C-alpha cells in the first residue's frame, strides 16, 4: 500500500509553547489511523496543520507527494484533505439535507454565474447534489430527519451530520476530531460502524479519539502524542504493549485502555 | 409550478407599480407622491445591497459611502465629460464595486461590531473626501446636472430626453420602479440559487464553510461588490433626480437608515428592504405633525417594533415557504 499523506518534522509554536514538536509519520491509502494522547498533547493542532487551517512553524505535510502546508483551508479541501471539527460544527439554521447539499460545493462544475442564471450544467449539478446528499444521509442513518433544522438534532446525530458534511466534499482523506465524544456506548458502537463504512467508501480516515476501546478496535495503526511529541507508533497491539505509552499516557492502570 | 407562480406575482407587481399607482396618482392629483415613491424605490435598491451584506453575516453601516460615490461618479461624468446619464448608471455601479473590492479585501476579515464600526467610519471618510477632492467641487457640490438625455438606436427613440417631457417625475418614477424590480428579481434569484446557499453557509459558520472548500474570502468580496454596486447605482439615480450632489447628500444617518430598512423588513426576507423602506419613509412623514417629538416617537416605535417582531415586518404576513430564505 502506498502512502497518501506524509507528515515530516512538523512543528507548531504558539509563542513560547510548542503545541506540536518535530512530528513525522505517514498515512497509508485507505487505512484508519488514530492519533491519541492526553489533553493538550497537540492532537487538534496536528489536525489543523494537516488540513491547512494552521501554517506550521517548520516542517511540512505532503498529500500524494504534493506539499499542502501553507495552502488556504479551502485549497487543501479541494485537493481532498478535509477536516471535521472537534466541537459540533454544522450550519445551524439550515435543514439537515441543506447542510449536506451545501457541502457538495467542491463537486460543482457550474460557475457562480452559471448557478445564478440556472444553466443546464448548474441544474444538473443541483440534481446530482440532491441525489448524493440523500445517499449520504441514508448511509449515516439520518434520512428520517433530513428536513429538521440542524440545530434541533440530538447530540449523536449532530456528530453524524458533521461526518456527512465531510463526506459530501468527496474527500480522499477525512480527519475526524473526537467524533465519539459525548456518545453513550450504543451510539459509539453505531459510530464505529459508520467510520468503518467511510473507509469502505475508499476514504482514508484520520481519527482523534479518547474512547480507548473504540480506538483499539477500529484502528489499523495508532500514533501517540505527548507534550506535542510523537512517543510511539504502531498497531493497536504494539501500542498496548509499549511501556513508554503506558507510562506517559495510559497510566499504570490497564483498565483505562480497555484491556 | 413554482416558476408559474413567480411569473404571476411579477406580472401583478408590474401592473400595480406601472399602471395602477400612476393611474391612482393621476386621478387624485397628488403628483408629489411620484417623488416620494421614486425615493422609496431607490432607497430600497440601496438597502438591498446592505441586506446582501447581512446575508453573508456582516453588519454594514457604510452603504451611504457608495451611494455618495455613485452619485459623484455619475455627476462628474455627465457634467465634466459629457457622458450620457444612461451610460454613467452602470459605470457608477461598477466604479463602486471596484472600490469596494479594494476596501473589502482588508476589512471583510473583520466580523461583528468591528466590521460595523469600520463601515460606519467609511461614510464619514467618503464625505470628507468629497469635501477635499478637487474633482467633487468641495462643499459647493455639483449642481445643475442635466436631466437624463434621450437614448436612440438607429434613429429609433428608446428613451426620450427627460428635459423635453411634460412630466419628468413620472419618467423618473417609471425608471426607478423598473430598476427596483430588476434589482429584486436579481436578488431573489441570487438567494434562491446555490449562491444563496453558499452565502448562508458563510453567515452561519465561516470556518466550516472553508473546510467544505468554499473560498470564503472570494465569496465575501463578491457579495460586498454586488452590495456596493447597488449603492452606487441608486446614488447615481438620486443625483440625477435632484440634479445635484453634495458631500452631505448621503451621511452617516442615511447609512444607518439603510440598515434599519433591512432590520425592519426582516433580514431573512429578500423583499424585506422594500417593505422596510416603505414603512420607514412614510412612518417618518406621518409623524411630521409631532414637530420636536418626531424623532423621539419615531425611535420609540422602531424599538418597540423590533422587540415585538425581531424577524421584521415580513414575518407577520408571509408563510414560511414564501419569500423566506433562511429556513
Ligand atoms: N491558537 C492557539 N494559541 C495558543 N495556544 C494554543 C492554540 N491552540 C492550541 N494551543 C495550545 O496547544 C496545546 C495543544 O492543544 P491541542 O492541539 O488543542 O491539544 P489536544 O487536542 O491534544 O487536546 C495546548 O497547550 C493548547 O493550549
Ligand atoms: Mg483536541
From TrEMBL, chain A:
Entry's InterPro entries? AAA+_ATPase (IPR003593), ABC_AA/LPS_Transport (IPR051120), ABC_transporter-like_ATP-bd (IPR003439), BCA_ABC_TP_C (IPR032823), P-loop_NTPase (IPR027417)
Q: Does the keyword Magnesium apply?
A: no
Keywords (alphabetical) are:
ATP-binding, Nucleotide-binding, Transport
Does the record bear Transcription in its keywords? no
- Positions the record marks as coiled coil are none
Gene Ontology cellular-component annotations: plasma membrane
Q: Which GO terms describe its molecular function?
A: ATP binding; ATP hydrolysis activity
Q: Which residues form the ABC transporter domain?
A: 5-252
Protein name according to UniProt = Amino acid/amide ABC transporter ATP-binding protein 1 (HAAT family)
Q: Which organism is it from?
A: Chelatococcus asaccharovorans
List the taxonomic lineage: Bacteria, Pseudomonadati, Pseudomonadota, Alphaproteobacteria, Hyphomicrobiales
UniProtKB/TrEMBL annotation, chain B:
Q: Name one Pfam family in it.
A: BPD_transp_2
- Coiled-coil region(s): none
Give me the Gene Ontology terms describing cellular component: plasma membrane
Membrane topology value: Multi-pass membrane protein
> Which Gene Ontology MF annotations are present?
branched-chain amino acid transmembrane transporter activity
Q: Which residues cross the membrane?
A: 37-57, 64-83, 89-108, 115-135, 141-159, 171-191, 221-246, 258-283, 295-314
Report whether Metal-binding shows up as a keyword of the record.
Answer: no
Q: What is this protein called?
A: Amino acid/amide ABC transporter membrane protein 2 (HAAT family)
- Native species of this protein? Chelatococcus asaccharovorans
Species classification: Bacteria, Pseudomonadati, Pseudomonadota, Alphaproteobacteria, Hyphomicrobiales
